[in-house]
Amino acid sequence: MSKKVDEFVTKTEEELEKPTEEELEELEKELEEETEEEELLEEVEEKSPPPKELVQKRKFLKRQKDKDMFETVEEVFDTSTLMAVYELMRRGVIGELFGTISAGKEARVYCAKSPEGKDLAVKIYLTNTAEFRKGIRKYILGDPRFEQIANRGLRRLIYAWARKEFRNLKRFAKAGIRVPEPISVYKNVLVMEFIGENCKRAPLLVELAKPENKLSTEEWQKIFDTVVDYMVKMYQKAKLVHADLNEFNIMYWQGEPVIIDVSQAVPLSHPYADEFLRHDIQQIRRFFSSVGVEVPSFAELYSKITGME
Ligand SMILES: Nc1ncnc2c1ncn2[C@@H]1O[C@H](COP(=O)(O)OP(=O)(O)OP(=O)(O)O)[C@@H](O)[C@H]1O
Ligand SMILES: [Mg+2]
């Protein structure tokens, strides 16, 4: 078990005044409602998509994982984030917060325990890194409403981004795709099912492909078939394109692939949806052929996923 992130992140029950039934109901309702920022994000996304290079750059930035897994806690936990974690404790969602599972430029993932002792994954979007600010600023640049958004504060836009991942997870799960079950989202903190056990996360496909973890071709074939089935469901049922689907964003747990990292998924109406889909298909073809699966042609996969000949 990894060490607790910070002693004072764990509060005793007396210190945390539990919400009442009515309060919880209200919180639940609040979660259902779209915030203005979320609507704005959607509009911006659909009307002024980022230029191609920018999309590439965002993805590149995402890959640049921090080497030091236990970098200063303070950098992530500014007062507002700390308060958000407290609020989730008060609501009885989080019991205790443990060590870092992953430390990227845009988000950190922690293992936590529910008050009942169940493992949880807590994804905290960084609101105070230059990278995220730059990334999101560029993402909305060129839109006439940019000023309006900037005035409201980038922080609130990041909250909307976290809620977007929560909603996308729900939509994928509803379509029958195995994703971490979304549990709660508050400000820049997203709580979901932990994929793994005892705070030890399940492997990513990229890790499973290492020589020491050799799976048989049949096993890879089975994983591939399931991933393709998920892609069909994403497109035809959830009506979303993942837009960053690759061996880094698929975990493997209890014999099943699990899709993660869905904040950037876009609706089929997005002007770049088709381009993103083509890119996802190529990424999946590249990876699975590298592990020995005889992958169908691009055209075959594309028509299977979209249901178009
Ligand atoms: N539900 C989960 N259960 C266990 N581990 C998880 C879960 N979600 C994410 N992780 C771990 O955290 C890592 C980062 O998560 P994710 O891919 O969602 O974030 P990201 O947007 O890529 O962030 P980053 O900027 O850190 O790259 C994953 O590669 C995985 O190892
Ligand atoms: Mg990722």
From TrEMBL:
Keywords of the record: ATP-binding, Kinase, Magnesium, Metal-binding, Nucleotide-binding, Serine/threonine-protein kinase, Transferase
Biased composition (Acidic residues): 22-45
Gene Ontology MF annotations: ATP binding; metal ion binding; protein serine/threonine kinase activity
Catalytic activity: L-threonyl-[protein] + ATP = O-phospho-L-threonyl-[protein] + ADP + H(+); L-seryl-[protein] + ATP = O-phospho-L-seryl-[protein] + ADP + H(+)
Start-end of Basic and acidic residues biased regions: 1-21
UniProt-listed Pfam families: RIO1 (PF01163)
Region called Disordered, residue ranges: 1-52
Protein kinase domain ranges (all copies): 95-309
Family matches, as SUPFAM superfamilies: Protein kinase-like (PK-like)
Keyword Ubl conjugation (UniProt): no
Matching InterPro entries: Kinase-like_dom_sf, Prot_kinase_dom, RIO-type_Ser/Thr_kinase, RIO_dom, RIO_kinase, RIO_kinase_CS
Enzyme Commission number: 2.7.11.1
Gene3D superfamilies from the UniProt entry: Phosphorylase Kinase, domain 1 (3.30.200.20), Transferase(Phosphotransferase) domain 1 (1.10.510.10)
Enzyme class: transferase
Family membership noted in the UniProt record: Belongs to the protein kinase superfamily. RIO-type Ser/Thr kinase family.
PANTHER family: SERINE/THREONINE-PROTEIN KINASE RIO1
Name assigned to this protein: non-specific serine/threonine protein kinase
Organism field: Ignicoccus islandicus DSM 13165
